[in-house]
Structure prediction request, 345 residues.
Amino acid sequence: MTIEVPVLRLGLAGFTEAQQKSAADAAAAAASARARWELGGFAEADAWWLEGSRTVLMANDHLRVQPAVPSGRSVQLALADVDRPVAFTQPVVAPGFKPAVTFPLQERPVAVAVLHKFADWLQTMLSQFALASSIAEHQPGLVSGSWEVLRGSQLLAVVDLKLGAGTMPGVTSADFQEASWCIRDHGAVLIPPSYPRASVSQLMWQYAQRSERDLLPPHYRTQPLYFRRPPRLPQRQMKDAHLLLMRELLAHPGMNFKGLQQATGLGESALVRVLSALYVVGSITSNAKRAMGGAPASTASRDSIVHEQSAYVSVLDSTPRPSDLPHRPALDMTAPAPLGLLPEH
Prediction:
């Protein structure tokens, strides 16, 4: 089994170019067997570093971080909406503001230690990545059902369409290397109360955002593609590119990869990543019979369709096909603004 190490993205605000270089060096030095760090876009980052000397505390517990480069923009945050680890470089000059985590950026060992602490706080997500990676590794042999993932007698994870996916706290990708996937009867598995739980769609979606594995089947690069159903996820988790692709496939069923490139302006690698995320949650298909509004399939033809698709479909989606679902209103494909992030122009 290939051991995948997830990438965690660090967003910066208020940093000079020299400080950005120092942060990038610290991120590279913080790589470990459980996660790698790299700088990323602020809104999509897993954690934030904010420059303390450029942070201003405003009314209603809002923060404003002033830019340090000519092309930068100030960032305004509502502290109550911050949902990820955040640390401030020293000194923090805002009167009366005492953040929980501060550190001297120029001291690399301390900065690296902050990122290790962040990884501790993100351990649930890292464990869920490890489980999703194991699903991707074993998916050719998986079929719809309830599964227990065991290493000896130790229960590492449970995967069930109705219950969701539960992972043992602290489990890593290395733990799954010698694990066995054991199928159980529906209703015969239980997720222990101490195991963090996520829907299988959520599990695979966040995996697709981080994995460097090629998750898109080769024929999805050549055959016509169709919209199947919206991802069973909060809309705020979808980026503009996901919404754009769903809109194009809904409006123009049967577009192929090159057509989508021309329609969206996305480069090849970016388009592959976006399509991969939609694929692993069952939102797109290369089979017109499985498309939203497609003709109902007989039981026999449905069996052949399942085998034609990746096991992601059979593992993640045993629910009725779109033709069996009640009529939905027109989809709202408007991209939502990220909560708690109010950049100023």
The chain has nine helices and 15 strands. Residues 141-198 form one domain. Residues 89 and 103 are 5 Å apart (CA to CA).
